[in-house]
Amino acid sequence: MKRIALLPEGTVSHEAVSYLFGNEPVQLQYYKLISDVFLSTVNGKSDYSVIPIENTIEGSVSLHMDWLVHEVNLPMQVEWVYPSIQNLIGTREEFMDKDGEIDLSKITKVLSHPVAMAQCQQFIKKYTPAAEQESVNSTVEAIEQVRNNQGKGWAAIGTTLGAAKYGLDILARRVTDHSNNFTRFVLIGPEKLQLSKSATQWKTSILVSLPEDFPGALHQVLSAFAWRRINLSRIESRPTKKKLGNYYFYIDVLESMESVLLPAAIEEIEALGCQVRVLGCYPSFTYEELEN
Ligand SMILES: O=C(O)C(=O)C[C@]1(C(=O)O)C=C[C@@H](O)C=C1
């Protein structure tokens, strides 16, 4: 049975991985910190790690992208998209007014994972204007802390699954600032992953480092894709962490390494003096493709 490392039970990651595997039997291993999720697969304690990498509202999850690039060398084996439905969670009685209605302005502190918190900023400002905000390691850690500090006016942003796990109430449902809020997840691990479902789209993620003092290098890199009519779905620059002002480019290509075109494009880019590292070539599932 595949051993899957992920953030704790009741997180969005937990919901997402259950959606990916459906009825396929897998052994889930929960870790409090995303760094321990990565390290579990690096150290062979699990076969794959579940890593959230991008969100509709927040964009790239930089911390996780940086771990993927700088700290580990495990290929991406599958990508899928799952909706991040966040709720405001706490103990009802703490926020009741004299008419028995919930008064969210009584909330003194809102806790969540920073990415989940960022998805709900307008809601927090509007309905809990006096609340302090505190970032924790996962949405479930936030729920746990609220449960352990009852009576202080604290509330968490997290999933209904997490609220049920800790026996707390949903104070407000679907509190993200945009309803179309999805997170892109990847499974990383040394072995290819066999899934019972198949995706229509394959992707390849690459890192390109440009040579120094080469005017127009990025333009030439992009033209290697452009003239072959290879579609890119994301390009992003991130610091190399070696020297101020040095960046590499993270590029998602809508093409498999099995195609004739992509290896040729990479060869052309390398011939320009760029370094290319392939982070993975994997099936990319839409939310709908994984249904049923
Ligand atoms: O804390 C969780 O529930 C997670 O699964 C982590 C995470 C993230 O790291 O981006 C995943 C998706 C969410 O939208 C918010 C948080």
Description:
This protein has helices at residues 12-21, 34-42, 62-71, 114-118, 121-127, 139-148, 160-165, 217-226, 261-271; strands at residues 2-6, 26-30, 48-55, 59-60, 76-83, 87-90, 109-112, 132-135, 154-158, 169-172, 182-188, 201-209, 232-239, 247-253, 275-285. The chain starts with a strand and ends in a 7-residue tail after the last strand. It folds into three domains: 2-83 and 181-188, D-Maltodextrin-Binding Protein, domain 2; 87-172, Periplasmic binding protein-like II (D-Maltodextrin-Binding Protein, domain 2), CATH 3.40.190.10; 201-282, Alpha-Beta Plaits, CATH 3.30.70.260. The longest helix has 11 residues, at 261-271. It has 292 residues and is of the alpha/beta class. The strands form two sheets. Strands 1, 2, 3, 4, 5, 11, 12, 13, 14 and 15 form a ten-stranded mixed β-sheet that branches. The chain binds prephenic acid (PRE). It catalyses: prephenate + H(+) = 3-phenylpyruvate + CO2 + H2O. Its EC number is 4.2.1.51. Keywords: Amino-acid biosynthesis, Aromatic amino acid biosynthesis, Lyase, Phenylalanine biosynthesis.
